[in-house]
Specification:
Elements lengths: L1 H12 L13 H8 L3 H14 L2 E4 L3 E4 L13 H25 L2 H12 L8 H18 L3 H25 L3 H20 L3 H20 L5
Antiparallel strand pairs: 1-2
Helix pairs in contact: 1-3, 3-7, 4-6, 4-7, 4-8, 4-9, 5-6, 5-8, 6-7, 6-8, 8-9
Amino acid sequence: MVANTLEAVREMLSVPVFIPGGRLPSEVTMADRLGVSRPVLRQALAVLKKEGVIKSTRGSGTYVRGGRPSAIGAPESLVDLENCMRFRMIVECAASAEAARNADAAAIKDIRAVLEAPESSKSLDHAVIEADLAFHMAISRATRNRYHVMTLEFLQPHIMVGLKLARQLLGVPLDVVSRRVFSEHRAIFEAIKQRKEELAAERMREHLSAGIDRIFSGKTW
């Protein structure tokens, strides 16, 4: 429901009348226009505020901000987010297979260290998100192919926004997310450690596909 509302608000803001600095209708009017409850609308607006698309002024209202969202190159819609994740499936499945083939003992140790790090700080939102990205970066380095590293570094703003957006939209407790993702990461790591290239690629595909399903199909975490 929140995801659909977010897309509806984005579409509404694309109308020329909502120029930078323009004031949004009241929450009551917007909720009625979109056919949603005010709590759901507020969650969608909170995402747009974090992205820098809109801003609220106490006692005045909510306004469209000028310029682009603050995260350079970040996803601008749920379609962007899904496309980014599907692109990652192509790149990172190949990276996982290459890591299983090329990783040396130091690279395996690096992946393991990153994998186990979230357990000590999973109550901190930013720590979990950074650890998630660090795991994927460690795999890209283990390929010993700098183009995998360069590609993932380029995608970092997209990935970071996507990870944060997923948690905001679904309202899932952070520890639940951490346990499920940790299990998926563990399966990828074990396949790489055992030098099973096809299995490593398959485990990465399952992991990223599960991420898409959790966000867009409402499946459980």
